[in-house]
Amino acid sequence: MGKGQSAIFAPGLLSGRVALVTGGGTGLGSATALELARCGATVTIAGRRAEVLEAAVAVAAKEGAGAIDWASADVRDREHAERLVSTVLERHGRLDVLVNNAGGQYFTPAELIAAKGWRAVWRLNVDGMLNMAETAFERAFASARAGTVVNVTLSPHHGMPGMAHSGAARAAVEALTRELATRWSDLGVCVSAVAAGHFDTEVLEKYPPSVRAGTARSVPLQRLGTPAEHAWLVTLLASPLGRAFNGSTVTLDGARDNWAGVWPPPGLADASGEVPTEERRSREVARKAAGKGAPEQS
Questions:
Q1: Exposed (0-12), middle (13-18) or buried (19+): which is 44, by Cβ within 10 Å?
Q2: C-alpha angle with apex 202: 216 to 129, nearest 5 degrees?
Q3: Tell me, what's the pLDDT at 284?
Q4: Disulfide engineering: 80 pairs with which of 73, 139, 207, 251, CB 3.0-4.6 Å?
Q5: For residue 268, what pLDDT band results from cuts at 50, 70 and 90?
Protein backbone atom coordinates (compact mmCIF):
# COMPACT_ATOMS: atom_id res chain seq x y z
CA MET A 1 0.00 0.00 0.00
CA GLY A 2 1.42 3.35 -1.02
CA LYS A 3 1.47 6.40 1.19
CA GLY A 4 -1.94 7.99 1.44
CA GLN A 5 -3.77 5.00 -0.06
CA SER A 6 -6.58 2.99 1.49
CA ALA A 7 -5.67 -0.41 2.92
CA ILE A 8 -8.77 -2.11 1.52
CA PHE A 9 -10.55 0.03 -1.07
CA ALA A 10 -9.68 0.51 -4.73
CA PRO A 11 -7.76 3.68 -5.57
CA GLY A 12 -10.05 6.51 -6.58
CA LEU A 13 -13.21 4.91 -5.15
CA LEU A 14 -14.57 8.36 -4.22
CA SER A 15 -12.73 10.52 -6.73
CA GLY A 16 -14.61 13.70 -7.55
CA ARG A 17 -16.82 13.42 -4.49
CA VAL A 18 -17.03 16.03 -1.72
CA ALA A 19 -17.64 14.91 1.86
CA LEU A 20 -18.39 16.76 5.09
CA VAL A 21 -17.63 15.09 8.44
CA THR A 22 -18.96 16.69 11.62
CA GLY A 23 -16.98 16.07 14.78
CA GLY A 24 -14.11 15.38 12.43
CA GLY A 25 -11.24 16.72 14.51
CA THR A 26 -10.75 13.73 16.80
CA GLY A 27 -11.43 10.04 17.28
CA LEU A 28 -13.68 8.20 14.88
CA GLY A 29 -14.50 11.38 12.97
CA SER A 30 -10.86 12.10 12.22
CA ALA A 31 -10.23 8.50 11.14
CA THR A 32 -13.28 8.65 8.87
CA ALA A 33 -12.13 11.87 7.23
CA LEU A 34 -8.68 10.38 6.57
CA GLU A 35 -10.13 7.25 4.93
CA LEU A 36 -12.57 9.19 2.77
CA ALA A 37 -9.68 11.36 1.58
CA ARG A 38 -7.48 8.32 0.92
CA CYS A 39 -10.27 7.06 -1.36
CA GLY A 40 -10.16 10.26 -3.40
CA ALA A 41 -12.84 12.42 -1.79
CA THR A 42 -12.33 16.09 -1.00
CA VAL A 43 -13.18 16.34 2.69
CA THR A 44 -14.17 19.15 5.04
CA ILE A 45 -14.08 18.39 8.75
CA ALA A 46 -16.18 20.45 11.15
CA GLY A 47 -16.30 21.04 14.89
CA ARG A 48 -16.43 23.75 17.51
CA ARG A 49 -12.69 24.03 18.28
CA ALA A 50 -10.60 25.52 15.50
CA GLU A 51 -7.28 24.46 17.03
CA VAL A 52 -8.36 20.80 17.10
CA LEU A 53 -9.48 20.94 13.48
CA GLU A 54 -6.26 22.63 12.39
CA ALA A 55 -4.23 19.91 14.11
CA ALA A 56 -6.25 17.15 12.41
CA VAL A 57 -5.70 18.72 8.98
CA ALA A 58 -1.97 18.97 9.70
CA VAL A 59 -1.84 15.25 10.57
CA ALA A 60 -3.69 14.39 7.37
CA ALA A 61 -1.26 16.45 5.30
CA LYS A 62 1.72 14.75 6.94
CA GLU A 63 0.25 11.33 6.12
CA GLY A 64 -0.46 12.33 2.54
CA ALA A 65 -4.10 11.36 3.01
CA GLY A 66 -5.45 13.73 0.38
CA ALA A 67 -7.51 16.92 0.31
CA ILE A 68 -8.88 17.84 3.75
CA ASP A 69 -9.84 21.30 4.99
CA TRP A 70 -11.83 22.48 7.99
CA ALA A 71 -14.59 24.83 9.08
CA SER A 72 -15.74 25.60 12.61
CA ALA A 73 -19.43 25.25 13.46
CA ASP A 74 -21.80 24.21 16.22
CA VAL A 75 -24.24 21.78 14.60
CA ARG A 76 -26.75 22.30 17.43
CA ASP A 77 -27.48 25.71 15.89
CA ARG A 78 -29.43 25.64 12.61
CA GLU A 79 -27.78 28.84 11.40
CA HIS A 80 -24.35 27.28 11.97
CA ALA A 81 -25.43 24.21 10.00
CA GLU A 82 -26.61 26.35 7.12
CA ARG A 83 -23.40 28.38 7.14
CA LEU A 84 -21.31 25.19 7.22
CA VAL A 85 -23.00 23.63 4.20
CA SER A 86 -22.79 26.93 2.34
CA THR A 87 -19.06 27.11 3.08
CA VAL A 88 -18.49 23.63 1.60
CA LEU A 89 -20.50 24.55 -1.51
CA GLU A 90 -18.59 27.81 -1.95
CA ARG A 91 -15.22 26.07 -1.61
CA HIS A 92 -15.88 22.94 -3.64
CA GLY A 93 -18.99 23.58 -5.72
CA ARG A 94 -20.86 20.51 -4.50
CA LEU A 95 -21.58 18.22 -1.55
CA ASP A 96 -22.04 14.47 -2.03
CA VAL A 97 -21.57 12.85 1.38
CA LEU A 98 -22.51 14.04 4.86
CA VAL A 99 -21.22 12.07 7.85
CA ASN A 100 -23.06 13.09 11.02
CA ASN A 101 -20.39 12.02 13.46
CA ALA A 102 -20.73 14.77 16.09
CA GLY A 103 -22.24 13.46 19.33
CA GLY A 104 -21.65 12.96 23.01
CA GLN A 105 -22.98 11.95 26.40
CA TYR A 106 -21.99 11.61 30.05
CA PHE A 107 -22.47 9.08 32.85
CA THR A 108 -25.31 9.58 35.32
CA PRO A 109 -28.07 7.37 36.76
CA ALA A 110 -31.37 7.81 34.94
CA GLU A 111 -33.12 9.19 38.01
CA LEU A 112 -30.49 11.92 38.35
CA ILE A 113 -30.64 13.23 34.77
CA ALA A 114 -31.41 16.94 35.02
CA ALA A 115 -33.59 18.65 32.44
CA LYS A 116 -30.60 20.73 31.34
CA GLY A 117 -28.47 17.63 30.83
CA TRP A 118 -31.21 15.87 28.91
CA ARG A 119 -31.60 18.86 26.58
CA ALA A 120 -27.84 19.11 26.05
CA VAL A 121 -27.51 15.47 24.99
CA TRP A 122 -30.62 15.66 22.82
CA ARG A 123 -29.56 18.88 21.08
CA LEU A 124 -26.15 17.50 20.14
CA ASN A 125 -27.14 13.99 19.09
CA VAL A 126 -30.60 14.54 17.59
CA ASP A 127 -31.04 18.22 16.75
CA GLY A 128 -27.48 18.43 15.42
CA MET A 129 -28.01 15.46 13.13
CA LEU A 130 -31.33 16.76 11.88
CA ASN A 131 -29.98 20.28 11.34
CA MET A 132 -27.16 18.96 9.19
CA ALA A 133 -29.17 16.34 7.27
CA GLU A 134 -32.02 18.69 6.38
CA THR A 135 -29.67 21.53 5.44
CA ALA A 136 -27.55 19.27 3.22
CA PHE A 137 -30.70 17.98 1.55
CA GLU A 138 -32.22 21.42 0.99
CA ARG A 139 -29.06 23.14 -0.24
CA ALA A 140 -27.23 20.37 -2.11
CA PHE A 141 -28.85 16.96 -2.44
CA ALA A 142 -32.37 17.84 -3.60
CA SER A 143 -31.23 19.83 -6.64
CA ALA A 144 -28.55 17.27 -7.53
CA ARG A 145 -31.03 14.42 -7.03
CA ALA A 146 -28.22 12.52 -5.33
CA GLY A 147 -26.43 12.42 -1.98
CA THR A 148 -25.49 10.24 0.95
CA VAL A 149 -26.02 10.79 4.67
CA VAL A 150 -24.33 8.49 7.21
CA ASN A 151 -25.44 8.98 10.81
CA VAL A 152 -23.19 7.66 13.59
CA THR A 153 -25.07 6.23 16.59
CA LEU A 154 -24.13 3.82 19.38
CA SER A 155 -24.67 0.19 20.30
CA PRO A 156 -25.92 -1.63 22.36
CA HIS A 157 -29.54 -1.59 21.37
CA HIS A 158 -30.68 -3.41 24.50
CA GLY A 159 -30.18 -0.34 26.66
CA MET A 160 -27.46 1.96 27.98
CA PRO A 161 -27.36 1.83 31.80
CA GLY A 162 -25.78 5.01 33.13
CA MET A 163 -26.44 6.88 29.89
CA ALA A 164 -30.19 6.54 29.35
CA HIS A 165 -30.41 10.03 27.86
CA SER A 166 -27.91 9.07 25.16
CA GLY A 167 -29.64 5.74 24.55
CA ALA A 168 -32.91 7.56 23.94
CA ALA A 169 -31.26 10.12 21.67
CA ARG A 170 -29.42 7.51 19.61
CA ALA A 171 -32.62 5.49 19.19
CA ALA A 172 -34.27 8.64 17.87
CA VAL A 173 -31.44 9.07 15.35
CA GLU A 174 -31.96 5.53 14.08
CA ALA A 175 -35.71 6.15 13.74
CA LEU A 176 -35.03 9.38 11.86
CA THR A 177 -32.56 7.55 9.63
CA ARG A 178 -35.34 5.22 8.49
CA GLU A 179 -37.80 8.09 8.07
CA LEU A 180 -35.45 10.29 6.04
CA ALA A 181 -34.35 7.34 3.90
CA THR A 182 -37.97 6.74 2.93
CA ARG A 183 -38.81 10.41 2.46
CA TRP A 184 -35.83 11.22 0.23
CA SER A 185 -35.29 7.97 -1.68
CA ASP A 186 -37.29 9.14 -4.73
CA LEU A 187 -34.79 11.98 -5.11
CA GLY A 188 -31.80 9.64 -5.11
CA VAL A 189 -30.67 10.44 -1.56
CA CYS A 190 -29.46 7.55 0.61
CA VAL A 191 -29.56 7.73 4.43
CA SER A 192 -28.01 5.03 6.60
CA ALA A 193 -26.47 4.76 10.06
CA VAL A 194 -23.58 3.08 11.86
CA ALA A 195 -24.11 1.87 15.44
CA ALA A 196 -20.62 1.99 16.91
CA GLY A 197 -19.42 -0.08 19.84
CA HIS A 198 -16.29 0.46 21.95
CA PHE A 199 -13.33 1.83 20.01
CA ASP A 200 -9.80 2.58 21.08
CA THR A 201 -9.85 6.38 20.86
CA GLU A 202 -9.00 9.28 23.11
CA VAL A 203 -12.71 9.58 23.97
CA LEU A 204 -12.36 6.74 26.48
CA GLU A 205 -9.95 8.84 28.51
CA LYS A 206 -12.80 10.99 29.86
CA TYR A 207 -14.49 8.03 31.55
CA PRO A 208 -13.61 6.64 35.01
CA PRO A 209 -10.68 4.18 35.20
CA SER A 210 -13.02 1.35 36.21
CA VAL A 211 -15.01 1.87 33.02
CA ARG A 212 -11.93 1.93 30.82
CA ALA A 213 -10.49 -1.19 32.46
CA GLY A 214 -13.61 -3.24 31.87
CA THR A 215 -14.49 -1.96 28.42
CA ALA A 216 -12.72 -4.62 26.34
CA ARG A 217 -13.99 -7.41 28.63
CA SER A 218 -17.57 -6.35 27.86
CA VAL A 219 -17.08 -7.17 24.18
CA PRO A 220 -17.39 -10.83 23.09
CA LEU A 221 -14.65 -10.16 20.53
CA GLN A 222 -12.48 -9.39 23.60
CA ARG A 223 -10.88 -6.29 22.17
CA LEU A 224 -11.72 -2.71 21.35
CA GLY A 225 -12.46 -1.76 17.79
CA THR A 226 -9.95 0.30 15.86
CA PRO A 227 -10.79 3.69 14.36
CA ALA A 228 -9.76 2.34 10.96
CA GLU A 229 -12.43 -0.38 11.13
CA HIS A 230 -15.11 2.22 11.77
CA ALA A 231 -13.77 4.42 8.98
CA TRP A 232 -13.87 1.50 6.53
CA LEU A 233 -17.54 0.88 7.26
CA VAL A 234 -18.48 4.55 6.84
CA THR A 235 -16.53 4.66 3.58
CA LEU A 236 -18.36 1.57 2.34
CA LEU A 237 -21.68 3.28 3.07
CA ALA A 238 -20.44 6.38 1.23
CA SER A 239 -19.49 4.28 -1.81
CA PRO A 240 -21.86 3.24 -4.63
CA LEU A 241 -22.63 0.05 -2.67
CA GLY A 242 -23.96 2.21 0.16
CA ARG A 243 -27.24 2.72 -1.66
CA ALA A 244 -28.12 -0.90 -0.92
CA PHE A 245 -28.09 -0.01 2.79
CA ASN A 246 -30.62 2.82 2.49
CA GLY A 247 -32.59 3.07 5.74
CA SER A 248 -30.39 0.54 7.51
CA THR A 249 -28.43 0.79 10.74
CA VAL A 250 -25.26 -1.31 10.54
CA THR A 251 -23.84 -2.34 13.91
CA LEU A 252 -20.06 -2.60 14.31
CA ASP A 253 -19.35 -3.54 17.92
CA GLY A 254 -17.61 -6.91 18.18
CA ALA A 255 -20.99 -8.57 19.01
CA ARG A 256 -21.51 -6.35 22.05
CA ASP A 257 -25.19 -6.04 21.17
CA ASN A 258 -25.46 -9.77 21.84
CA TRP A 259 -24.23 -9.56 25.42
CA ALA A 260 -24.14 -7.06 28.28
CA GLY A 261 -21.48 -7.71 30.91
CA VAL A 262 -18.14 -9.47 31.21
CA TRP A 263 -17.54 -12.08 28.54
CA PRO A 264 -17.68 -15.03 29.15
CA PRO A 265 -20.34 -14.57 31.84
CA PRO A 266 -19.50 -15.82 35.37
CA GLY A 267 -20.00 -19.56 35.71
CA LEU A 268 -19.92 -20.32 31.99
CA ALA A 269 -16.17 -20.53 31.48
CA ASP A 270 -13.97 -23.33 32.83
CA ALA A 271 -10.73 -22.86 34.76
CA SER A 272 -8.84 -21.90 31.63
CA GLY A 273 -11.31 -19.13 30.83
CA GLU A 274 -12.71 -20.95 27.80
CA VAL A 275 -16.39 -21.69 27.20
CA PRO A 276 -16.65 -25.54 27.25
CA THR A 277 -18.37 -26.03 23.91
CA GLU A 278 -16.35 -29.06 22.87
CA GLU A 279 -17.32 -31.05 26.00
CA ARG A 280 -21.02 -30.78 25.21
CA ARG A 281 -20.43 -31.71 21.60
CA SER A 282 -18.62 -34.87 22.71
CA ARG A 283 -21.56 -35.89 24.92
CA GLU A 284 -23.99 -35.39 22.04
CA VAL A 285 -21.85 -37.52 19.70
CA ALA A 286 -21.72 -40.28 22.32
CA ARG A 287 -25.48 -40.08 22.78
CA LYS A 288 -26.10 -40.55 19.08
CA ALA A 289 -23.58 -43.39 18.87
CA ALA A 290 -25.43 -45.20 21.66
CA GLY A 291 -28.66 -44.98 19.68
CA LYS A 292 -30.42 -42.76 22.18
CA GLY A 293 -31.84 -40.37 19.64
CA ALA A 294 -30.97 -36.96 18.42
CA PRO A 295 -29.09 -34.47 20.61
CA GLU A 296 -31.18 -32.24 22.82
CA GLN A 297 -31.96 -28.83 21.37
CA SER A 298 -31.06 -25.78 23.42
A1: buried
A2: 100
A3: 53
A4: 73
A5: low
